[in-house]
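Blinded run. Sample ID left blank on purpose so nobody reads anything into the name before looking at the predicted structure. Input follows.
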Amino acid sequence: MTTTNAFPSTEPPQPAVPAAIRLHTPTAAGLATFLGGSLAGTWILAVNYHRLGATRERTMVIAIGLFVTVAVFGLAMVVPDTVPGAVFYLPLFLGYYYAAKSAQGEAVEQHRAGGGQIASLWAAAGAGVVFLIVQVIVVVLLVVMALALFGDGLGTPVTFNGGNTIYYADDATDSETRHLGQVLTDAGYFPPDGAATVVLRRTDGQATVAFIIQSGVSDDPAAVDLFREMGQHIRREAIADLTAVELWDEWSTVQKTISLD
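Blinded prediction complete.
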């Protein structure tokens, strides 16, 4: 069976590589990818091409690796939270392993057969961990920057019981926000040291309360009924002109609007 490989292939004959040069095996590429994602696997392939003197192939594999990384991050942004991480890690691991085997496997085996050294898998594992840490740091910095730049877009925050927050915007007031927070605390929605987020807005004399929840919750009829009951409770105890409850995902996108009329 003939397979097509997206990564550039390094076919023999190869320029003589000094035996002291350590090349990474396909297993190393798979291991680095499993621990640190596509960037780590790309780094392993690029290092091999560099040590083999294949400058053109090194540039190509870096470009392909960056494209794969952007594509994976894009998919991760849109798939529901219920999708397991294995959906991403397993294809990446297998993809980089077989790509390395197809594109570089023969060159690595020729190097080994000629007495050349093979890089330790610990080096690949270390690269994977380093790339994982770097990616976590970058994501955290991006989140902090986004909150600093756009956090006020939800409104003015008021904190309850440690980490629970209500943002109020438009014509909503601080006093009714604090009243709402007390009602939600008494109802158990704002537990001690919790991290629930609610948005209160008032426009043209009508109030709306939005609950920021995990993706997929709005598709659960039982959960929707609970939020409807919560909205009715809020209307009785705190905001008499509350007309609707909205369920938002983590990106503040409205997933469902629950009318209380």
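Unblinding after everyone has recorded impressions. Residues 70 and 127 are 19 Å apart (CA to CA).
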